[in-house]
User: Fold this.
Amino acid sequence: MLNLPFRSVAAALMFCVILGPVGVLYSSIAGGIVMIVLGLFVMHFKLLGPAILLWLVSCVWGVAGANRFNKKIVQLQK
Assistant:
């Protein structure tokens, strides 16, 4: 039986709130890379509104990624 550790949703949210797009890497590698690239683009053009939106989307994506990972682990353990 496979015994993989779960990803903490609270930790995912904390990482995303503090680190923004980089925090998404905790729950989703591909999502983190996408958000970092978008973040670099937004910050290059100094777009404040989209930067705040990007930060919020990063938080949602990080939590959703941790939940999705945990659901896959539960399905594998059945």
Q: What stands out?
A: The chain has three helices and no strands. The chain has a mean pLDDT of 93.
